[in-house]
Amino acid sequence: MNRLFVLVSVLVLVAAVSCDGGGGGGSSTSPVPLDKLDAEFSAAICEKVFECCSDAERMAMFMQLTPTPTDQASCETSYSALVGLVFGGGADSIMKGRILYSADNAGCVLGAVRAPGCATSRMGEARLSGADGCNDFITSNVENDAACQQDYECKSGNCEGAQLDFNNAANNKDGVCKPMPSEGQACPGFKCADELYCDFGAESKCLATKANGMDCDNSSECKSDNCGDDGKCAEQPAMCQGK
Known about the structure:
Blueprint: H1 3-12, H2 37-52, H3 55-62, H4 72-87, H5 90-95, E1 99-101, H6 103-113, H7 125-128, E2 138-140, E3 147-148, E4 159-160, E5 175-177, E6 196-198, E7 206-208
Antiparallel strand pairs: 1-2, 3-5, 4-5, 6-7
Helix pairs in contact: 2-4
């Protein structure tokens, strides 16, 4: 299982970060301006990682980061860069009316991440997306067939054909929001609708995710998002529950 994906899912899967729709009940914290998002969330996540995860669990999480973080400070540097890469175009998206950003809702989610103890650090997308009482802090505004540069700008979550130059934004080119590929359709961007995964075979088609106990080669194939060491879909193991 890709532990790095799970750790940052609270940041990347912004469309999933909601619960009761009421906006109340999350841990209280100050609003988080967009330009502080990377630093605030990176600090909160890394604080939890070093509070709640064992050395072996941290090693598994950090294996895709270069250089590998060795302490909380280097963890924050690495994750701040990662979050900045994901949301670096947020201000431009807001200016163009392609997304709405709520600093209050971002603060709510941040408060949930920082809740005392290790319960909220339980690694698993469902757990992290269950920030008590918090609504989405990014709302997509772009309909299908309209211009986009980022997946999170599209109501469908799928921006096709965009070209992004992270070194020079002047070279960026718009793509178009399109529906997520459905079962049996091609997935050239490796994205599929809910309950589907992109089969990385010669034809790269969207297929139904697999139940626990079925054979798998990659965690994305499983409903649980966990392909075990025995090559079978299985529930995600609990981790980072205190050293």
